[in-house]
Here is the input.
Amino acid sequence: MRPKYVVGNWKLNGSLPGNESLLRAILKEVSPQPGRHLAVCVPAPYLAQVRGLLEGTPVAWGGQDVSRFEKGAYTGDVSGAMLREFGATFAIVGHSERRTLFGDTDEAVAQKYAAARKAGLVPIFCVGETLAEREKGVTESVLARQLDAVLEVSGAAALDGGLVAYEPVWAIGTGRTATSAQAQEAHAFLRGRVAKKDAGVASRLPILYGGSVKGSNAAELFAMPDVDGGLIGGASLVAEDFLAIWRAAVA
Ligand code: 13P
Here is the structure.
């Protein structure tokens, strides 16, 4: 049995008082659960605050992106080592918002994946097709291209210790969730493609689903054999909504 993960992606949201009340409300209910992991990926300026609130609790934390560079003249970037200094376990790489709004190419994402691994972070490597791509019937070739970029740079062995998140772009922030069957199909495709390189790595690889996950649909999604939890945007900003998803993962 693979572990299950529920990871919040706060995106560009938060404030010092708001973060504190959100995390305190989450901590009230969460207890350590074998094979279950809960985490929040926060804007970099809040890492110190979040570490102060979460250290020693069952909730881990991470960054939302990571530089492909280790250090130097890269204004605005945050390195993997910096995230580690603030106790981060995770770093999201290749989120569709980074790809479409900030120009992250498959190659840049692959380099970020490698940089995160090198720094000792667990990368959460996001892949997913747009609505136009799904309607054109090219979902699998898009997922293959995105996945292969990381496999080429880092090799299948580097996926051991990382997470993949399938996030169909058309389901992100739209309220339109992939059906559990659509998610399962994409996850099975991704796992199968990794298995062609390394069957052992593929069988251990947690693949999370992201895109309008809510308390009301989480249980059905998480029941799919290749869905190993969720990457949660909007619902991770409301304690009760995030906890409802956590309960679905623990049940
Ligand atoms: P929503 O849960 O708001 O659809 O966002 C999903 C997401 O992009 C998580 O990374």
Q: What stands out?
A: Strands lie at 4-9, 36-41, 59-63, 90-93, 122-127, 163-166, 207-210, 229-232. The longest helix spans residues 180-197. The domain at 4-250 is CATH 3.20.20.70 (TIM Barrel).
